[in-house]
Amino acid sequence: MKTSTPATQLADLFAAVVHTPFGGMGIRTEAGVVREMVYLPRHFAEKEATDPLAAKAAKQIARYLKDPEFRFKLPVADAGSEFQKRVWHAISEIPSGQVLTYGDIARRIKSAPRAVGQACGANWYPLIVPCHRVTAAGGLGGFSHHDDVDGFYLNVKRWLLKHEGVTGY
């Protein structure tokens, strides 16, 4: 009988797991759309794509890792509230290599910075919707509902910003 580790069992949730310099990216697909993308710690094993869409997403992640100007072109599942979609749309317009603050986004959509931060943390499609390009007015801010100073998620955000040429974080 084949035994599986907790990391293997969790990897089974994904149609692919792509290794990246910051850890991994889990890709979930369903019914011809990307259902979710998830930042994963390094202990997750890479997993070959189990369907053509996951393979396409994995290739696009690899392209972004080589070229931070790359723009994703993937069908994604309809997710989020109308407010979250407004936030994600505003974030998607931030060019690679630039950042805006939670307050900047809030002013653009006539909302509050804290609500923008909550929508960022609820993002189902990191990299596609580049929430890493949104920072606090006085520094890096949180990321994916995590704000531990030296934690995994903030290190992902630091890596992505550096990859795109943003310094100071």
Description of the structure:
The protein is α+β, with helices and mostly antiparallel strands and 169 residues long. It has 2 domains: 61 residues, no CATH class; 82 residues, Winged helix-like DNA-binding domain superfamily/Winged helix DNA-binding domain (Arc Repressor Mutant, subunit A), CATH 1.10.10.10. Helices cover 36% and strands 15% of the residues. It is built from 6 helices and 5 strands; from the N terminus they run H-E-E-E-H-H-E-H-H-E-H. It has a 3-stranded antiparallel beta sheet, with helices on one face. A two-stranded parallel sheet has the order 4-5. Helix 3 crosses helix 4 and helix 4 crosses helix 5. The termini are far apart. The mean pLDDT is 91.
Structural class: alpha+beta
CATH class placement of the largest domain: Mainly Alpha
Radius of gyration: 16 Å
Shape: globular
Low-confidence regions:
none
Order of helices and strands: HEEEHHEHHEH
CATH level-4 homologous superfamily of the largest domain: Winged helix-like DNA-binding domain superfamily/Winged helix DNA-binding domain
- Amount of beta strand: 5-15%
Instruction: Work out the count of structural domains.
Output: 2
Instruction: Report the end-to-end length measured between terminal Cα atoms.
Output: 48 Å
